[in-house]
Write a structure and sequence with these properties.
Layout (H helix, E strand, L loop, with lengths): L11 H7 L2 H9 L3 H23 L2 H18 L9 H19 L22 H19 L2 H12 L4 H8 L3 H18 L5
Helix pairs in contact: 2-3, 3-4, 3-5, 3-7, 4-5, 5-8, 6-9, 7-9, 8-9
């Protein structure tokens, strides 16, 4: 009887805690579904947050991340470890989100949208309303940014990626990332001035 040289399957808890992404990705490329499941579990929430920021819709974000993981599963044999697995997944997710944004129908004009019914003034505290308005103002200010600036800002400020990873995800230089972030922060600071 010939013994298998393949690694024995590991429990999900051990995979999630102890093994680096690179090893999990290599095992997944060999068909180990548990290793891929561990990667999905490890990175799914941060990719979902990224997609939600880019698409502004939870349902679209879930679809984008699911499509990104399906694409990654199919492309794992091509993954060469030149970048961290996380960075590779960010790039796939960003590309999927950009594709979804291009395919979206144009937004409706305000004239065609029905005005929501007025709520009782006592039902929500003024602070909550002010916070909601500030959040809406930030969302609007982000939407007004150039796509490259918005993406760099989301990856840095929301996802906490270092400049080097952002450069890899956006396929630019670190200097370009720093410039985009500077311009994005300056624009957002001007737009959010009344909310300070």
């Amino acid at each position: 009887m010939i013994e298998s040289t393949a690694s024995p399957p590991l429990g999900r808890d051990l995979l999630e805690r102890d093994l680096p992404d690179g090893l999990l990705a290599a095992r997944a490329a060999e068909g180990d579904e548990d290793s891929f499941a561990a990667l999905v579990h490890r990175h799914g929430s941060s990719l979902l947050a990224l997609a939600r920021c880019m698409l502004g819709n939870h349902q679209d974000a879930e679809e984008a991340v699911q499509d990104a993981f399906v694409s990654a599963w199919r492309r794992l044999p091509e993954y060469r470890h030149s970048a961290e697995f996380r960075t590779w997944m960010y790039r796939i997710t960003v590309n999927r989100c950009l594709t979804m944004r291009r395919r979206r129908p144009p937004p409706l004009s305000l004239d065609t949208v029905a005005e929501p019914a007025a709520q009782d003034a006592w039902s929500q505290p003024a602070r909550s309303a002010e916070q909601h308005a500030a959040t809406a103002a930030l969302s609007h200010a982000l939407a007004e940014l150039d796509a490259g600036q918005r993406l760099c800002w989301i990856l840095r400020e929301v996802q906490g990626l270092p400049y080097k990873e952002i450069a890899h995800v956006t396929r630019t230089s670190e200097q370009t990332v720093r410039g985009r972030l500077f311009r994005a922060r300056r624009s957002l600071q001007e737009a959010m001035g009344p909310w300070r």
